[in-house]
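R.M. (postdoc): so does anyone remember the format we settled on? I'll just put the structure tokens first.
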């Protein structure tokens, strides 16, 4: 039996209406859209004393650049391990990596504003991961997700679509900050990157509309190539669309043996290892104040739980994985992959691992099995040898995928019963709050809190269960803890 037949048989590719080639293309697409985390995560987590309020991971005897190199390695390893578990155990096409937002909370709030040692913050991540493993094993996480009200479940996909779209449009320079209106149209006509992004976006839309296989990845690579040509011509600056200056990273991974992972462009000979990060959480456990530590774990837990739940439900909706009640069969398996990823990530030195909403790009390319996730995992490991070639794809190119998929995901609104206002309100709140707060979890919270209130007010008592009220109350408690300053007061 050849490799293709083996992969097809192990992942039941044909039974899922896919092919090995389609799964691999889908995996490459997902990887390209989420590979920016290789550089972004280290940048956020590293102590940068020249930026006010940023007090992330700092290691005596190592510069911030050296620590970023270590964090790049553990980011890759954590993403590869978590996504590998997703592939082999869950057989789902979802990519995983340290989550944005959660890493900022780790560095800016827990370590920076609260002054908690970064080792203790890592201990909180490990504690959260172990708690997730236990709750997943007994089916508690699946039970809670099944409590999501139906209009909220069906609204998550559209909310994520809007969330992806605004992220993509910002990276492409089409949407920019504005002091008066918060966001506005960027200077498209005078910005070469924005013009290039528009060309790449509509090129990708055209390929997609024609039904060209691999249209999204063709659009990404085509835009990146055109950007390279314009850079050589001096029209686009060399650093346009790059998430960080990654050319100076020189890495080693002594956990797997002593060797250097060099970036050819770097021209550097220093060797950095991840020994100071791996197992650092153990030292953090010795410096714990019980109540404040519990509050930090609670915050990590709450955001990660509902971010992951929302991503799994939303991406599964466009993949056709959901049953008639809006539930994802065997959701405990991808949840366990997420829990293991978080635990391993904290142990080796990075913030909470979560399921990536960018997985929608691979799903839209036809990815339906764990072979897509396996491809993502392998590409993360391969990127160790080329760090950060993966991140060299400029954001204005890679984030085209987010806009394309975001537009497509808007079609999920047809699953919502808009004729009933008691469904319209929680669904609408879920959809709107996600992009406006930059948080999947907050969008879900808005829908869950509003659902029992409007159902009760509308006299539809049979649609409300005690669990709905319990979830709503839990979110109210979370927002009180998160926004009242109680964490700061206890640390």
């Amino acid at each position: 039996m050849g490799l293709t037949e083996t992969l097809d048989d192990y992942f039941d590719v044909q039974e899922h209406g896919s092919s090995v080639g389609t799964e691999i293309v889908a995996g490459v697409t997902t990887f390209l859209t989420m590979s920016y985390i290789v550089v972004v995560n280290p940048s956020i987590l590293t102590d940068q004393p020249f930026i006010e309020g940023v007090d992330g991971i700092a290691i005596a005897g190592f510069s911030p650049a050296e620590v970023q190199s270590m964090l790049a390695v553990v980011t890759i390893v954590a993403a590869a391990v978590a996504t590998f578990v997703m592939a082999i155990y869950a057989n789902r096409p979802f990519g995983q990596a340290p989550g944005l937002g959660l890493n900022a909370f780790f560095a800016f709030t827990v370590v920076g504003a609260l002054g908690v040692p970064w080792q203790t913050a890592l201990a909180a991540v490990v504690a959260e991961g172990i708690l997730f493993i236990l709750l997943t094993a007994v089916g508690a996480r699946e039970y809670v997700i099944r409590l999501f009200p139906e209009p909220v479940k069906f609204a998550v996909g559209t909310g994520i679509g809007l969330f992806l779209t605004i992220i993509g449009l910002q990276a492409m320079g089409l949407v920019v900050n504005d002091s008066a209106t918060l966001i506005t149209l960027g200077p498209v006509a005078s910005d070469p990157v924005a013009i290039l992004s528009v060309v790449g976006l509509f090129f990708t839309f055209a390929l997609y509309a024609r039904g060209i296989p691999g249209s999204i990845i063709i659009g990404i690579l085509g835009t990146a190539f055109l950007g390279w040509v314009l850079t050589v011509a001096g029209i686009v600056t060399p650093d346009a669309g790059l998430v960080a200056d990654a050319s100076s990273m020189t890495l080693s991974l002594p956990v797997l043996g002593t060797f250097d992972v060099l970036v050819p462009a770097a021209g550097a000979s220093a060797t950095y290892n991840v020994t100071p990060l791996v197992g650092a959480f153990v030292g953090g456990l010795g410096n714990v104040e019980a109540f404040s530590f519990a509050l930090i774990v609670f915050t990590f837990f709450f955001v990660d739980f509902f971010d992951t739940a929302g991503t799994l439900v939303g991406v599964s909706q466009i993949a056709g994985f959901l049953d008639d009640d809006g539930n994802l069969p065997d959701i405990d398996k991808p949840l366990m992959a997420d829990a293991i990823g978080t635990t391993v990530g904290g142990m080796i030195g990075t913030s909470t691992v979560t399921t990536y909403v960018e997985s929608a790009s691979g799903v839209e390319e036809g990815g339906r099995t764990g072979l897509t996730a396996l491809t993502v995992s392998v590409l993360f490991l391969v990127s160790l040898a080329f760090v950060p070639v993966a991140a060299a794809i400029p954001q204005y190119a890679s984030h085209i995928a987010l806009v394309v998929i975001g537009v497509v995901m808007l079609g999920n609104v047809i699953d919502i019963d808009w004729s009933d206002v008691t469904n319209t309100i929680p669904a609408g709140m879920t959809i709107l709050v996600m992009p406006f707060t930059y948080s999947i979890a907050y969008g879900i919270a808005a829908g869950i809190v509003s659902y029992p209130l409007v159902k009760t007010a509308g006299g539809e008592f049979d649609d409300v269960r005690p669990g709905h009220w319990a979830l709503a109350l839990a979110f109210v408690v979370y927002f009180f803890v998160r926004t009242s300053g109680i964490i700061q007061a206890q640390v």
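R.M.: ...and that's the designed sequence above, right after the tokens. Also worth knowing: The chain has 21 helices and six strands. Confidence is low (pLDDT under 50) at residues 49-53, 244-271.
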